[in-house]
Amino acid sequence: LPLVKAADSLLLSLFQAKMSRPVQARRLEGTEENVWVEFVKLAATYSTVNLGQGFPDFPPPDFLKEALERILSKGSHMLHQYTRAFGHPPLVKILAQFFGKLLGRELDPMTNVMVTVGAYQALFCCFQAFVDEGDEVIVIEPFFDCYESMVKMAGGTPVYVPLKLKAPKDGKLMSSADWQLDPAELASKFSKRTKAIVLNSPNNPLGKVFRRQELELIAELCVKHDVLCLSDEVYEWLTYDGKEHIRIASLQGMWDRTVTIGSAGKTFSATGWKVGWTVGPNHLLQHLRTVHQNSVYHCATIAQDAVAQGFQREFELYGKPDSYFIQMPKELQQKRDQLVQSLNAVGMKPIVPEGTYFLVADISEFKSDFPDVPGSSEPYDSRFAKWMVKNKGLAAIPLSTFYCAAHKNNYSQFIRFCFAKEEATLKAANDILQKWKREKTNP
Ligand code: PMP
Question: Where does it primarily localize (predicted)?
């Protein structure tokens, strides 16, 4: 008998170890796959030059690193402890001052600003705080891919509206400005079920900087249909050729219905710090605070303190030539032009971006190197990008990543490169492209 009992309990423990009940919460269904996990791994395994994921390979500015060093060597030891949940006081104070000036209104640091773990968590708080089962959220394509999973995880339904490419005049390079909203199509997506629209200007992946007229159209529709605007402006300082970044929250009727999202990662070339923020009216931010206090509580105190010092410097230098917000886009514009030239020279037609870290290029002329397989379930650009990193050592991200499943195959002849890279990295990319071109002409 004891032997039978022992065998029974062994069987039971084996059975229990496996668990037969479903463990995954239903809200995760359809969001398990993540392109970044796959492409980051491919780049780490095969690439010699990584222009895939969006992060600079050059250091953040000295003033930011020095601020952190000062905190560590001379700062209060209390900076290693918890701080205020919704944002370290010196950081929310300077953010309120800075964005108050930009938006032309007085901001209360305690109620109009909330600090988050990167812009990612700001977005997560927004979708969790505002989106219910049955709500629709309008997403402009191409879009930063996490919007889709975050809307779904909150129980909402994303409704997509793609920017349309207007072919440029013969001989001219394509520009991100050639990708435009169809006003009638956009209007047709608004309904009683629409809770919010996500705007991302400057846009990742195209680098499009939305013009005033386009923003006014979005604003008009938001007001007409009583819809929220979640405005992801993480690339706000990165515009080129004098393009103006317009904050939709500054347009008529929009402050009360807009949450503006920013990132110190992009602002100060320090993506690993994961400091982000939201700016908006208290009646919206109060719900973000509820999500935030019940999830992460707050982000690293020392990082927030150093970012506050960085903003303090920028506040004093605002509009002056020494400002990082003036110098950084200048440098990035040169890097953009360098990559535009490299790609154009080999026939990988670039879409010249007006902003961001990114440049999208047309790979149609490279189809002969890696022929399409009709009927494949994976979009061509995705297979091309995988082939390219494995065979040429150059990592990029397929544009179809930034489209919903139904539209992916309509936009599968482009790949996205990140040009926020050291001179040497961009030169190494150029060398790969030149060698590739030579092999094409002399196979
Ligand atoms: N929004 C957009 C459009 C982005 O490109 C990124 C980062 N790639 C984020 C949000 C997330 O920013 P953070 O790193 O501050 O979380």
Answer: cytoplasm
